[in-house]
Specification:
- This protein is an alpha/beta fold.
- It has two domains: 230 residues, Rossmann fold (3-Layer(aba) Sandwich), CATH 3.40.50.2000; 172 residues, 3-Layer(aba) Sandwich (Rossmann fold).
- It contains 14 helices and 13 strands.
- Helix 1 crosses helix 14 and helix 11 crosses helix 13.
- The longest helix is centred in the C-terminal third of the chain and has 21 residues.
Amino acid sequence: MHVFHLNHSDIVGGAARAAYRIHCALRTADVDSRLMTDVAISGDWTVQAPNSKITKAWVVLRPHLGSLATRLLRTDNPVLHSPSIFPSGRLRRLNTCEADLVHLHWVQNEMLSVADIGRLQKPLVWTLHDMWAFCGAEHYAEDRRWQEGYRANNRPAYERGVDLNRWTWERKRKHWKHPIQIVTPSQWLAACVRQSALMHDWPVTVIPNPIDTEAWQPLNRELARKLLNLPLEVPLVLFGAVGGTRDPRKGFDLLQAALQSLQVNVSGLELLVFGERQPQQPPDLGFPTHYAGHLYDDVSLRILYSAADVMVVPSRQDNLPNTAIESIACGTPVVAFAVGGLPDIVTHQQTGYLATPFDAADLAHGIQWVIEDSYRHAQLCANARAFAVREFAYPVVAKQYLAVYEEVLARHRTQPRPA
């Protein structure tokens, strides 16, 4: 089977890492999988990026034109927008390529225009990594327009100017006449698809993002801490960069409140932060804090997860965060709110702790519950690793994708997609 994947990048960003891992999982299952990107930095020969000067220039220019259009037509909506206006120049190649099937991923950063997607003629599968496909131009939405339809009378009061989201949604409705097989990594995102005004009757299947559990394995905790020059005996709580304060979805304010609560009940605990170097004026988080900086390779990240006693993911809204999957693959339990796709990763009090959504006190209780009993902690670590192998290993996920591919190809043979 020949499959062509499309994603903006190969390994830059969460969606890219997920798409690349799906591509790699399929190759281990003897699928002739290729990944087409605008930005390729992995050095993998199976990843294709623009090579002509003209194409490279257009790839660089196109997202800037999209951003300019977004600013000119700006609303006061603070979330990321992608109107996907400009044609990619890829349609002819994609429609005539040797692939049996084209698999879309995160293509909305002007990699494909809305019209381009509607003109693809190959059998299609589309793995969603956020809500953009069934929203307007926004990647995540807190209002209900994606469920109700984008009308003039249900626009949020805080938005101004041209209704960019409604205009983009109407273009999707115009150009996407033929349902595409949707795959979502989480049950939550699948439920959103089924509730959406645009895609409620499209086929949707839940397949988790994979991880190479042969490469992502637990490392001896003492050795990991020695390699990172971390204290050997204290409980270490790991979480992502405090730079996440710029995105309220990441819930850093809730983590801060939980840490304040922990100061009353827990002593000797220390924090481990990754994704950011120590700032000039570090925030007072209530506990000694170690900054691991940006870690770009899987080996360093594996050491980091293995050094921690618990990983905290305090997101208000998330699909299926790679960090949580990586953590449990390394045998480190995860504490998170029971929102989005996190219940697909964390089984409450089995592989970690699911706190009542947005209850900082319960989040703090979950952290304490995981680390306070050494026997319980060891069992959680073993459970987390076993769950990762059972649910997210490459062979497990590749098998599920192959089943979806066969269904799509069979459907395409009996009901060919019109030009």
